[in-house]
Amino acid sequence: MSQQNIDSRLAKRVSRIGLSMTVKIAQRARELQAQGKKIINMGAGELDFDTPEYIKLGAIKGILEGQTRYTNVGGTTALTQAIQQKFQRENQLSYELSEIVAGTGAKQLLFNALQATVDESDEVIIPAPYWVSYPDMVRLADGTPVTVTTTVDSGYKIT
């Protein structure tokens, strides 16, 4: 199937975004690694060490105990309680369980929030520095990304 046929089957909104720079960097790093070059790939945000043993064992334990079904959309009660306790203990922040949502990652949660709240021509402020895909996520939600540069002096907060 030609690229043109594939493109014609995609929603028009997909044309508003390009190939992610993260994907381009990761592809190039893999090409160089395949050539035998030693590469430290910092493009995809992946850790440079293996998953800790206690996490692996916890996952195996969960599988063996049959914890392999869909959970509540926002996470299990045990997980949301653990998040609540972490925020209180480490950040002195108090949240009700109903205010906590767990997901597959911050990028996915932000994408979901943008899809649920942004309408055509809404402007979305993105503090810079930011993750490379945020402007495209806003465009996919029919919004207009507006970048506001932050600095180390402001603690990377909008002033």
SSE blueprint:
Elements: H1 3-8, H2 21-34, H3 53-64, H4 77-91, H5 106-117, E1 123-128, H6 134-140, E2 144-149
Parallel strand pairs: 1-2
Helix pairs in contact: 5-6
Distance between the termini: 50 Å
| Strand/helix succession | HHHHHEHE
Number of helices: 6
Provide the gyration radius in Å.
20 Å
Low-confidence stretches: none
**Overall structural domain count:** 3
Strand ordering within the main sheet: 1-2
Please state the average pLDDT score.
Answer: 89
Number of strands: 2
What would a concise description of this structure say?
The chain is mainly α. The chain has helices at residues 3-8, 21-34, 53-64, 77-91, 106-117, 134-140, and strands at 123-128, 144-149. The chain has a two-stranded parallel ribbon.
Question: Please, could you describe this protein's structure?
Answer:
The protein has 159 residues and is mainly α. The chain has 3 domains: 1-47, no CATH class; 71-102, no CATH class; 104-159, no CATH class. Helices cover 42% and strands 8% of the residues. It has helices at 3-8, 21-34, 53-64, 77-91, 106-117, 134-140; strands at 123-128, 144-149. A two-stranded parallel sheet has the order 1-2. β1 (123-128), α6 and β2 form a beta-alpha-beta unit. α5 (106-117) runs parallel beside α6 (134-140). The termini are far apart.
Core attributes:
6 helices; 3 domains; 159 residues; single chain; mainly alpha; two-stranded parallel sheet
